[in-house]
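ok so for the tutorial part 2 we go from a plain amino acid sequence to predicted structure tokens. step 1 is just haveing the sequence, like this:
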Amino acid sequence: MYATERQQLIEHLVSAEGRVAVVDLAKRFSVTTETVRRDLDQLESEGSLRRVHGGAVARTRASTVEPSLAERTLRGGEAKLAIARRALHAVPPDFDGSVYLDAGTTTAAIAQLLTQRPATRLPLEVVTHSMTVAHLLAGAPGLSLTAIGGRVRGLTAAAVGAQTVDAISRLRTDIAFIGTNGLSADFGLSTPDPDEAAVKRAILAATRRTFVVADAAKYDSELLVSFGRLSDIDVVVTDEAPHGALADALAVAEAEVWVA
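step 2 — the prediction. this is what the tokens look like for a chain of 260 residues:
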């Protein structure tokens, strides 16, 4: 196979899958990893992809790119709903503790399912800084809702800022479901916005058990701001088991993986 043909195939794989790994490409095309790295360097110089540690990602996956809430709502709805269902195994009908719900479309799916939860003797305590999640849960039977205020960021409909962080720091919830824009072996949990990162960091510090809800498209992505280490995670709830360096790093961090 000529280099041009191989590079065209690599470009197609990146476009279709969002990311590729050097080792996987070397095996796929029966070439050395050095050859693959040269191919990736060439494709990056042409603007076809962006090099990252161990491979490459689509050019659109830059460290500051953040789709709006409306855009994310349209993506991977079935996968997010499946992740939400699996995540709620952590909140059985007899659970009488407190739950923090982060902002995001997957956590919104969890909120929607919570409104269908059978009412128990004691209402489930739910806390959130997401205006979307608060709207979904307000008035739902069997739930007691606390909405954290602050400056609302339009892109995510989430409260951010010092007031929000301070309010969260005064809590100690039993479980937190946290979303992330990126999940990687080296950079951990990351997001494009520093204010969002500060809030997520506060949630991690304020909960006893952390569940990260993220589909496989977030794997190996490294956004601008890291807000947590893999060792901060108790469980990753996802639609596809991680592999390679990320899987190894999660195992070292003793983070469980629940696949929907």
